[in-house]
Design a protein that fits this description.
Radius of gyration: 41 Å
Strand order of the largest sheet: 7-11-8-9
CATH class of the largest domain: Alpha Beta
Length: 258
């Protein structure tokens, strides 16, 4: 009987020792090894990478224990440099573990090609929206005589007219020729000789013409500020927007003083 008790005690001691060793191993695994392996409690703040070059971003992330992953689909922004970061995930300020992959979208090296839309006979405001939707940039606006106010008459790329469907790089600048709403109206050149220079200018502009060069002429016989000559002459057929040069009297003493 005593031998049985002794044997049971030895078995119990062995079980206690085994359980103690197992507990110690579990304690070491969960409290020491596992936290160290997974960097438990350690986190890295994701930096703002947008606008930086790919090489700069790669070396910067490596220094912070993060990994760089390039998204297969690149974007394109005309104002950005090639291989510049356009988007990132996770977002800036996020807390992540070390060795976490940071996914970025880079600006393409070369602009993708887009088909030129048709803007002719489209109102200028709508044409600008269409260009933006196609990733194109509105360039210069040139107004020409036409009864269609702000209606697009021509679309040009690099100084030449471009047709609908022609492929050009995304981000290209498109110049527009637009109507001024007046048209090539033919009118008779009014007679402004003998009029005050201010009244003459008002009549010229009111007739749809533009003011050209004002030349001052020395005279003692005509009141100061009087139009004594005009070019083109009165009665000539003129088109909207054409220039009119005038000669205005100025007293001799004033010219000598100047």
């Amino acid at each position: 009987m005593s031998e049985l008790k002794t044997g049971l005690k030895k078995i119990g001691m062995h079980l206690l020792i085994i359980m103690g060793i197992a507990f110690a191993l579990l304690l070491v695994f969960f409290k020491i090894y596992l936290p160290g392996y997974t960097h438990h409690g350690e986190s890295v703040t994701v930096p703002d990478l947008e606008g930086f070059d790919y090489e700069e971003v790669r070396s910067y992330l490596e220094g912070r224990g993060l990994l760089l992953e390039i998204e297969p689909d690149s974007g394109f922004v005309a104002e950005a440099d090639p291989l510049e970061v356009l988007k990132q995930h996770p977002k800036p300020g996020s807390k992540v573990k070390q060795n976490r992959k940071i996914y970025v979208t880079l600006n393409a090296r070369n602009a993708p090609m887009v088909r030129m839309p048709n803007l002719v006979n489209t109102p200028l405001k709508n044409a600008q929206e269409i260009l933006a939707n196609f990733g194109l940039v509105r360039g210069d606006i040139v107004y020409v005589p036409d009864i269609g106010l702000n209606a697009v008459l021509e679309q040009k790329y690099r100084g030449r007219e471009i047709k609908e469907g022609f492929e050009i790089p995304k981000g290209s600048q498109i110049d527009l020729v637009v109507g001024d709403g007046l048209g090539n109206q033919v009118l008779e050149m009014p007679n402004i000789i003998g009029m005050d220079d201010v009244e003459a200018e008002f009549l010229i502009l009111g007739s749809g013409l533009s003011m050209g060069t004002i030349n001052y002429v020395e005279t003692d016989t005509v009141p100061k500020g009087t139009v004594i000559k005009q070019l083109p002459p009165p009665g000539l057929d003129m088109k909207t927007g054409e220039r009119v040069d005038v000669w205005v009297s100025q007293l001799t003493d004033e010219l000598n003083f100047e």
